[in-house]
Amino acid sequence: MNAHRKKLSALLIIIVAALTACQTVEQAFEDTFSTRIPRHATEPEAQEKSLGERISALLWDESNRHISFQEILEDAQDRMGFAFSGSFQHDVLTYLREHEITGYLPEDEILHIAQLSDASNLLLNRTQRRQAITALREMVGNGDVYVYDGWTMIDDNTLWLWIVSPLNPEHIDTYRYQVDAGVWKAEPYKTNHASNAPMEAAVLLSEMPFDSIDQIMETAMALLEDAGEKRPFDNTNMTVGLNSLIGRIRYDNAYTFTGVLRTSREDRHLEFDRDGLLSDGDE
User: Fold this and answer.
1) How many distinct structural domains can be found in the chain?
2) Other beta carbons less than 10 A from residue 172's beta carbon
3) Which end of the chain, N or C, is more open, meaning fewer C-beta atoms within 10 Å of its C-beta?
4) From CA 131, how far away is CA 159, in angstroms rounded?
């Protein structure tokens, strides 16, 4: 910002000097030839701006005004016709900084940012989920990994799992993966909260139905479109759409995913089976 101001100040000094020189030459020319080439009596006087007026116009020229990231973000929302979620606002601001954007974004560039955002979204991108699971296996070693109660929670950027500790099968750890960081972190889970011995209610990680999330999101987006509230993008947030899922073994040993589909009119609680199909009661 300081460098930009210094450059602008230097440019203004040069312009002022040039305008001053031009004014001196114009005055000398007029003094020399005014008696030789008289103006017609009816010719209107030229309404030229003073030097101060010209400098002022330059200083306030809209093209020279710095546009803040917040102004760019607000213009992008106005252009698309809806308020962006906090998560997508973060993605837009990150893009502006990384690409040193200083002007307003056209619609096609906003849609490009949305594509980049969707590509890193764990709910929307199967590849991202598989990369997370691969990173977990690399972290805990090549042995079997067990998920207590089959419990997982997933949103656009984070994946949680209750893992039976590879070091002590009597212990459970909460593992958390964030796309931004690209690594898993583990912390102890209070075993007294568990209703069963860890291994008695454990599911192999390889048997967890993560790929069924594709079907779940397809159904959720169809329901959102039926409600007339599906956007071109940004449909996995706390205001509109399905922003998270919880998967676990139900009381009858059936595996289910649950989530809340949000619209401006209602919040609809949905349940899906392990294949990602909507339960009969929610259809």
Assistant:
1) 4
2) 23
3) N
4) 11
Which of 189, 208, 227 is the C-terminal boundary of a domain? 208
Dihedral of CA 196/199/205/208: which sign? Answer: negative
Tokens standing for residue 241: 């759409």
- In whole angstroms, what is the distance from residue 221 CA to residue 228 CA? 11
Residue 256, domain extent:
211-282
Among 176, 208, 240, the domain boundary falls at: 208
Of 216, 189, 220, 223, nearest in space to 275 by CA = 216
Compute the distance between CA of residue 111 and CA of residue 222 in angstroms, rounded to an integer.
20
For 86-144, how does the pLDDT look when each residue is reduced to its tens digit (9 = 90+)? 999 999 999 999 999 999 999 999 999 999 999 999 999 999 999 999 999 999 886 78
107 Cβ neighbours under 8 A, 6+ residues apart: 79, 80
* DSSP label of 236: B
- Which tens digits make up the pLDDT trace of 61-73? 555 678 999 999 9
Type of residue numbered 131: Q
**Model pTM greater than 0.90?**
no
Q: What's the start-to-end Cα distance of the chain, in Å? A: 55
In the 8-state DSSP scheme, what is residue 36?
Answer: T
